[in-house]
């Protein structure tokens, strides 16, 4: 049995404030388990690759809130029947789910700035990103290399946010807006759950492994992913409590990230050990 572990990063695998993964590098590399750890996050290709290199893993990952799945070199053997929606980016096979482009979002909704106070991520200086997010300068630069998305830093009231969401959808009906840990995100009918389902479909077509799916998240934009896997683990965060519609195989960690991540996975491992 292989565990497919789909994990958010900020506030789930990484501490929300410090971005520390604590002892998770050693924990993961010493797991007596067949698994793949697939990060599913709002972060960019470069940001995720940097984190993977630091913790010494090389699995596929899902970037920009589900906009695209990136498969490392050698992971997939594509045939003419599986080429649809694939493109190559820096030697990675990439399965595109979104049709958006980062720069197009800014152009489409620039007029709304006359009505609301907000700015797009690409408009924020690297220095300001560091101040807003506690990222280092090099990490801030990587976070702006976005292929599909352009998150919004909201400066107006929560009440006006509802009107803003309605106005965005009036401009383009196929869009959705959801709140992440720090920013608003706009998608064209893609999300983390759809990306996870596409990953599983591709995995099934290229692998003979029996597998179990686990998801870990901490915020609103993780809910759809958490609802779509066998096990759902909600990592504790004081400022952001979420709930799920599903009732079985759910775990709420007692500690925050990164310790809450380990605590959650150990719960799943204990539960599954009863089945063997």
The helix-strand sequence is EHEHEEEEHEHHEHEEHEHEEH
Name the CATH superfamily assignment of the largest domain: HAD superfamily/HAD-like
What is the first-to-last residue Cα distance? Answer: 11 Å
Strand content: 15-25%
- What is the highest CATH level, the class of the largest domain? Alpha Beta
Structural class by SSE content: alpha/beta
Q: What is the residue-mean pLDDT, rounded to a whole number? A: 92
Question: What quaternary form is this?
Answer: single chain
**How many separate domains?**
2
For the secondary structure, the number of strands is 13
CATH architecture of the largest domain: 3-Layer(aba) Sandwich
Q: Judging from the principal axes of the Cα atoms, what is the shape?
A: globular
Physical arrangement of strands within the biggest beta sheet: 2-1-11-12-13
Residue runs with pLDDT of under 50 for 5 or more positions: none
Helix content: 25-40%
Number of helices: 9
Could you tell me the CATH topology label of the largest domain.
Answer: Rossmann fold
Give the C-alpha Rg: 18 Å
Major sheet: size, sense and barrel closure? 5 strands, parallel
